[in-house]
Amino acid sequence: MIPPLSFTVIKGRPSFDLASIASTGEDVLKEVTRVSVLIGDLINRNSETVSNSLNNLEKLSNDLLVLGKTATTLDLEISRLSNTLNTTFESIQRTSNQIEKMVATLNSADSLLSYLNRPGTRNKFDSILNELQQITQNINQITKEIKEAFKR
Fold it and tell me: How far, in whole angstroms, is CA 148 from its chain's centroid?
């Protein structure tokens, strides 16, 4: 024979209680209404301040946009100036190198300047200049005498 089965009863409770949900929902709704009234009152009392704040935020946003554009323009100008300065410095460097070569050439023993600074050459130039001065004086005297001859 088969022994009798014994059954165990598991007691449960309802998965949700409509009365408690309704009560809780009503409390939540009252709290939301109360908070909404407080927020509305807060906004009404501070509407001018909120409006000013929003206007200031809008102005600040526009100013930041202008500042951003200005910064971009400045960045481009700085890059352009930097390139121009680099080109100028390179040109100055090349010119400096050329001047340095010219000075070396002028200071060399074979240069014209060196030749002109030699005492013998200097004496010859002084002699030539003295002769030219004497010739100029003679020409002036001859010119003066010719003028006087034509006056008579």
Answer: 78
The 3-class SS string of the chain reads: CCCCCCCCCCCCCCCCCHHHHHHHHHHHHHHHHHHHHHHHHHHHHCHHHHHHHHHHHHHHHHHHHHHHHHHHHHHHHHHHHHHHHHHHHHHHHHHHHHHHHHHHHHHCCCCHHHHHCCHHHHHHHHHHHHHHHHHHHHHHHHHHHHHHHHHC
Q: Is the pLDDT of residue 32 over 80?
A: yes
Query: pLDDT tens, 88-139?
Result: 999 999 999 999 998 888 778 788 778 777 888 889 989 999 999 999 999 9
Query: What residues have CB less than 8 Å from 114, skipping those under 6 apart?
Result: 106, 107, 108
- pTM of the prediction? 0.38
